[in-house]
Specification:
This protein is an all-alpha fold. It contains six helices and no strands.
Length: 104
């Protein structure tokens, strides 16, 4: 429900938790976690960043903070090669493909 309210992919949030090995989050903490991800995503979207880059920058900012992310992308053209970003992207694709095969 929180993902839907924030126009955030459930698979995206699930993937972040899976990659970060978060398996004991308290139910009452989930809305704040989702709001934090949403706030980061909205920040980058409001900067006029193309949607395909917002995903990566949201992850980089979650991992390092927005200011650190700004400095990182200023100094590196290959921010999308960040291991965390790659791992989340690959895991998200796997989750979505598995979901498609069970529901289709």
């Amino acid at each position: 429900m929180e993902c839907y309210k924030n126009d955030l992919s459930y698979e995206f949030v699930l993937t972040i938790y899976q990659v970060e090995d978060i398996d004991n989050i308290l139910i009452e903490d989930i809305p704040a976690e989702i709001q934090g991800i949403t706030d980061i995503r909205n920040y980058w979207a409001e900067q006029g960043i193309p949607d395909e880059m917002v995903f990566d920058l949201t992850l980089l900012s979650r991992e390092n903070g927005i200011e650190s992310c700004k400095a990182f992308i200023k100094d590196n053209d290959n921010y999308d090669l960040d291991n965390y970003v790659k791992e989340v992207a690959e895991c998200k694709v796997n989750i979505e493909q598995n979901d498609d095969t069970t529901t289709g």
